[in-house]
Amino acid sequence: MINKTYLIVVLFLIPLFCNAQNLIVNGDFEQHSGPPMNNDNLYTTIGWDYVNGFPEYYVNGFNNVIQAVPHSGDGVVAIGFWINPVSFDNGVTQIDAIGTKLAEPMIAGKHYVFSFWAKNRWWDEIYCAGLQVYGLEQVPAGIAGFSPYGASLDPEYFPNVQLLFETPRISNSEYYKFFRVCIIPETDIRYLMFKGVAKCSHSSVDDYLYVDDVSLFEEETFSFFGNDTTLCEHETLVLNASFQNATITWNDGYGEPIRTITEAGTYSVFVNAVNPVCPIKDTITVDYNLIPIPDKVLRPDTTICYESTITLDATTPDLFYQWSTGSENSSIEVSEPGTYSVTLSNGTCEKADEVTIDFYNCIDCDFFVPNAFSPNDDGINDVLRAYAQCELLDFNMKIYNRWGAPIFETSDIEEGWDGYWKGRRVSDGVYLYVISFSVAEFGIVKHKFSTGDVAVIR
């Protein structure tokens, strides 16, 4: 059984940010264009806009009164609202709002981690304030001083606005509370806006929330499983969605982070963790290619006669073929010895088979030795040689004189006797040859001998 395995064990301890750029310009409110001597001088804060009401900007050492210590550094912004029929026009509610153009747009569908610190101004029993965070596709025009006592987001000024996050009622405390959320915008966002919101129904409320250290980072998204895949018959796939300190849920109710897939289907996992902030969802579709591929398609190893051919046939329905010869046909003709292989594929899965084809001599091997030769150096019939009509496996030829003494020997059929012995020509007469050789006939190795007389004539 073949296993394909993806093993991605995720053990994150910090947020996964694609880059280190905070998309909020001057999110800690430390940068300003001049001394904010009055509380409502938000326009001196670099990167931030006065959108609605009377938001206040405090910097240690400049304002006459600072009513809250910043979470960090020297600067902090106060966003408030009033519900008081006596103080304002027939009970119209005043709600503060501030906004900022992002350093780079948020891209629809991407994951972002948005965070800030906030606390309530008062320490008595009435605390009604919360915050809403909105995203706008475009930077609104003419926003400064818009509708000082209005609570609505007029579409003329704020088209295609998205509510990204709303806090619960922030209790009266001397300590800042940390908010961190995942934002996945529906459309691109270029402008972010904080707006106060009432979280209770008191008839008269004067409340402020202090906001500091605002950040917005793109969070890395990743895949546990990779691309959709198609498996072969009997293969399995291990999906691993292990994650530290997380709640892991599969779309089919499976209860463990690691599972082995043995059936086709679509498998989705949902991971909720502290880090990363945004929930992770990953999906993979697993299919099976069940077009069968046989293990053996070629004949057993075979030996055939020289000068013959043999057809190797791998024909199987619905498959593709790749032979070691380069052919993509279902069968090939073989006329030379060797090992031939074919790979069969159903488009996803592959199996290979091979066969060895040998050749042998399928006729009697004729052997011939002349009965005379004339070693007179005239270039005609000067050398005695043996001749075979087939390939010899080994060969030996000896020549004897009339008294039985060996005068020549060779193991090379191409090397003949030139009629010399010890550097001198032999006399005319009859000499004896003895030849031994081996030959393969009909696939069987045979050892043969041949003897006879040869006449030397000059």
Describe this structure in words.
The protein has 458 residues and is mainly beta. It has four domains: 3-13 and 222-289, Immunoglobulins (Immunoglobulin-like, Sandwich); 42-219, Galactose-binding domain-like (Jelly Rolls, Sandwich), CATH 2.60.120.260; 302-360, Sandwich (Immunoglobulin-like), CATH 2.60.40; 367-456, Immunoglobulin-like. 0% of the residues lie in helices and 46% in strands. The protein has no helices and 33 strands. The protein has strands spanning 3-5, 49-52, 56-59, 75-83, 94-95, 97-106, 111-120, 129-136, 162-166, 177-183, 189-198, 205-219, 229-232, 236-240, 246-250, 258-261, 265-273, 280-289, 302-305, 310-313, 320-323, 331-334, 338-345, 350-360, 367-368, 372-373, 387-388, 392-400, 406-410, 420-421, 424-425, 429-441, 444-456. The strands form nine sheets. Strands 3, 4, 5, 7, 10 and 12 form a six-stranded antiparallel sheet that branches. A five-stranded antiparallel sheet has the order 2-6-11-8-9, with no helix packed on it. The chain has a five-stranded mixed sheet with strand order 26-33-32-28-29, with no helix packed on it.
